[in-house]
């Protein structure tokens, strides 16, 4: 953006001195930015200093604006009160907008602290730009911005399916411990079911963040052997009715952490259970004192990754940050470049979905509680190159979600993740010259680092890299996997796994030098062409069971 003339420059100091970090700068910032809307083009200069911004409302952003905030730090308050979902700066249908410099600071929830200033369900977006009906978003440039402990997206741009936000550049930014907080699949459940393995505060914290309507009161048996309680959670619609027990002791014959199916589905009391759906009933002769259960295990294990599950969102009169996950978040975008950034997140570190013409290059992802590099549903024309992605035992180090087409992944390092590297029904994927090392930490048989699977009652099993067929057994391919290094750790189910539906798959010139070097090819997957691979193990015809997601 080229803006000339002193008359176009607006300085925040014109609206008062609020740079001490103590006085609330919200009104001054709002007036400053609103003044820019009165001009065709504006430069907003926010002088160095600390700016406390405390409001449930947002400061508006406008088109044809250059914001220069070098040396300015924008602070969220220590106490969010009832306004625990906030977006500090917010623009609607913004075009030709540049933000340069500045820092955002918050107090993201820390699972290792007994006392936290913010709740885990707090969401504090920083620079948020949305498309609304009849308008458009395009030419958005974010440069040299930093963020620390922000419990939400630092940069979020969203378009519509039929009106994508265009030309989005995020360059040379640093977002550390940012992004929307997430628990990680099974985190809460595991600390309650295996309570003796964790400290008392951790167990109490986990129970406090599970909705009480999904926890039974103390269980007893009726005269017919049915499981009863004064309060028994109802079955959720369209879910398999499965339960897991928890308490100091388990009933005889019940495996701690394993799910059991309710035979009389939907019953509110006097439940009868089986190890399999519609299987033989498990007879329980005695119920230990203070034994309780979780019901609707898919919900308990998976859906509670998001702390908003404990809230009644219909009663909260704010926009639900459903899609806004990563520290960098783009949904329904076109022509996107994210380069030279360093990020880590207490949830999904990055989140790009339903977008096209994406270049994500030369970035460092240095930690993630959930997905590290997330390419969401139905992206097209994606290039990932030269990135270092360290998952820190989060969920998947890289996820390429269902419907993604024409994706090139070249020269990256993926390491330290929890549940492997996942490709869900890719169409035309080239994966070349990457390192995949130790991305199955959740499979480690250690209660502190591993994750139990509620389906089996054992630790989860994942491959280092795996391909699935999305919904309704749709096909995936063509896929080229060439010149990569695979170093799968002990506990991984395989080095690479192909579920049914794969076609036109080439594995050539890869090096397998980890503890696990086998390849699993399921029935229903076309046999891959494999040539000139070094250290490859057995080629096994075995269906990969994604234990953590199996319903």
**Any idea what the CATH architecture of the largest domain is?**
3 Solenoid
First and last CA, distance: 51 Å
Proportion of residues in extended strands: 25-35%
What fold name stands as the CATH topology of the largest domain?
Pectate Lyase C-like
Molecular shape: globular
Largest sheet: 14 strands, parallel
CATH superfamily of the largest domain: Single-stranded right-handed beta-helix, Pectin lyase-like
Task: Provide a descriptive summary of the structure in words.
The structure is a single chain. With 551 residues, this protein is mainly β. It folds into 2 domains: 48-180 and 325-549, Pectate Lyase C-like (3 Solenoid); 187-301, no CATH class. Helix 2 crosses helix 3 (200-208). The longest helix has 11 residues, at 26-36. The radius of gyration is 25 Å and the shape is globular.
Topology:
Layout: E1 9-11, E2 20-24, H1 26-36, E3 42-45, E4 49-52, E5 59-61, E6 65-68, E7 72-75, E8 85-92, E9 95-100, E10 103-105, E11 123-130, E12 138-143, E13 146-148, E14 155-158, E15 165-171, E16 174-178, H2 187-193, H3 200-208, E17 220-221, E18 227-228, E19 242-246, E20 260-262, E21 273-274, E22 292-295, H4 297-301, E23 328-331, E24 333-339, E25 342-345, E26 350-353, E27 356-361, E28 364-368, E29 373-375, E30 380-385, E31 388-390, E32 398-400, E33 405-410, E34 413-415, E35 421-424, E36 427-432, E37 435-437, E38 465-468, E39 479-482, E40 485-487, E41 496-498, E42 505-508, E43 511-512, E44 519-521, E45 529-531, E46 539-540
């Amino acid at each position: 953006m080229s803006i000339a003339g002193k008359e176009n420059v607006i300085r925040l100091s014109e609206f008062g001195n609020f740079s001490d970090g103590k006085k609330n700068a919200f009104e001054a910032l709002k007036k400053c930015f609103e003044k820019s809307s009165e001009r065709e083009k504006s430069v907003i200069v926010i002088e160095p200093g600390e700016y406390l911004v405390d409001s449930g409302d947002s400061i508006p952003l406008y088109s044809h604006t250059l914001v220069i905030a070098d040396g300015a730090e924008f602070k969220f308050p220590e106490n969010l009160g009832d306004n625990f979902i906030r977006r500090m700066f917010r623009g609607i249908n913004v075009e030709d907008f540049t933000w340069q410099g500045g820092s955002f600071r918050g107090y993201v929830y820390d699972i290792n602290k007994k006392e936290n200033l913010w709740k885990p369900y707090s969401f504090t977006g920083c620079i948020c730009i949305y498309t609304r009906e009849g308008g458009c978003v395009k030419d958005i440039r974010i440069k040299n911005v930093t963020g620390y402990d922000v419990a939400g997206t630092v940069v979020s741009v969203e378009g519509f399916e039929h009106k994508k936000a265009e030309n989005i550049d995020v360059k040379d930014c640093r977002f550390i411990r940012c992004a929307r907080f997430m628990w990680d699949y099974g985190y809460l459940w595991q600390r309650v079911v295996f309570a003796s393995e964790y400290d008392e505060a951790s167990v109490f914290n986990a129970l406090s963040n599970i909705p009480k309507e999904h926890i039974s009161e103390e269980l007893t048996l009726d005269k017919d052997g049915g499981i009863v309680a004064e309060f028994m959670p109802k079955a959720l619609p369209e879910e398999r009715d499965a339960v897991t027990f928890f308490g100091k002791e388990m009933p005889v014959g019940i495996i701690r952490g394993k799910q059991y199916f309710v035979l009389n589905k939907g019953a509110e009391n006097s439940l009868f259970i089986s190890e399999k759906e519609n299987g033989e009933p498990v007879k329980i002769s005695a119920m230990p004192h203070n034994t309780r259960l979780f019901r609707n295990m898919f919900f308990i294990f998976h859906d509670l990754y998001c702390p908003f599950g404990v809230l009644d969102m219909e009663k909260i009169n704010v926009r639900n940050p459903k899609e806004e996950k990563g520290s960098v978040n783009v949904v329904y975008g076109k022509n996107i470049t994210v380069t030279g950034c360093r990020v880590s997140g207490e949830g999904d570190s990055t989140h790009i979905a339903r977008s096209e013409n994406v270049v994500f290059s030369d970035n460092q992802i240095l930690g993630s509680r959930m997905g590290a590099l997330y390419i969401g549903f139905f992206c097209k024309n994606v290039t990932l190159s030269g990135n270092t992605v360290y998952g820190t035992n989060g969920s998947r180090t890289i996820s390429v979600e269902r419907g993604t087409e024409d994706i090139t992944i070249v020269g990256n390092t993926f390491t330290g993740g929890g549940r492997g590297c996942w490709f869900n029904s890719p169409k035309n994927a080239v994966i070349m010259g990457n390192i995949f090392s130790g991305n199955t930490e959740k499979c480690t048989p250690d209660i502190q680092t591993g994750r139990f699977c509620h389906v089996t009652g054992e630790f989860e099993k994942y491959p280092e890299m795996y391909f699935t067929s999305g919904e309704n057994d749709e096909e995936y391919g063509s896929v080229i996997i060439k010149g990569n290094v695979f170093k799968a750790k002990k506990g991984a189910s395989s080095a690479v796994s192909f579920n049914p539906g794969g076609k036109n798959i080439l594995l050539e010139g890869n090096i397998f030098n980890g503890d696990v070097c086998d390849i699993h090819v399921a029935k229903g997957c076309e046999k891959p062409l494999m040539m000139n691979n070094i250290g490859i193990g057995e080629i096994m015809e075995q269906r990969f069971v994604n234990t953590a997601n199996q319903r």
